Amino acid sequence: MPRIGAKLRELRRRRDLGVRELAVRSGVSHSTISLIERDRMSPSIDTLSAVLDALGTTLPGFFSDLQSSMPYSPFCTAGEMVEIGKPETVSYRVIGISHPNRQVLMLHETYQPGGDSGVAFTHTAQEAGMVVSGAIELTVGDVTQVLQAGDGYYFDSRLPHRFRNAHEGVSEIVSAVTPPTY
Question: Which domains, ranges and CATH numbers included, belong to the chain?
C-alpha cells in the first residue's frame, strides 16, 4: 500500500489549515488526522473521504497520482498472476496486480468444460477481450453470440452479461476491464 500521510499533510498545508481546523471541518478527530499523516494509522474509506472532502478533493483525485513506495516490475510471470476465480470451473488470473495505481484489470480467463460465469451481472466499466482458444458463448443484454478463437468483444459492462464455455475442451480469453471494478 502506498503511504498517504505525506500527501495528506501536503494538501492540508497547501490550504493553510492546522490539524485541529481540519478536524472540525471534517468531523474526524485531530488525533486521527495526526496518526494518518504520520502513516501510523490506515484510515477507513469513510474517514479518508471525510478528510478529503474537507480539503476539497476526492478519493480518485487523491490517489490518481500517488505512487506506491513498493517496487514493482513491468513483467509478470505465470506464477505471479493472482487467482481470483475458481480454477475448477472458471479461472480469472490477474495480470500485473502489483502495478501501482492500476487503471485496468487485465485477466487471463480459463473456462473448464461446462464453465459458466453464472447469472448475468453488471458493473460500472467497459470490458474487452479476445478468445485465445476454444469457444465462448457471450451474452450482452439480449444478444448472445458464440465467439471462436481469434474473435473479440467490447461492451459497456453496465449491460447484463454472462460468459459460458461453448467448447468441449478448455476455452481461454484474455480480457481487460476499466476501471478495474469486476
Answer: 5-63 (1.10.260.40), 78-178 (2.60.120.10)
What DSSP line would sit under 60-117, residue for residue? HHHHTTPPPSS---S---GGGPEE-SBTTTEEEEEESTTSTT--SEEEEEEE-TT-B-
- What tens digit of pLDDT does each residue of 36-95 get? 999 999 999 999 999 999 998 888 778 776 655 557 788 989 998 989 899 999 999 999
pTM above 0.90, yes or no: no
The H or E element containing residue 11 is helix 5-14
- Distance of alpha carbon 92 from alpha carbon 108, whole angstroms: 6
- Cβ 113 vs Cβ 165: under 8 Å: yes
For 27, the grid coordinates are 468531523
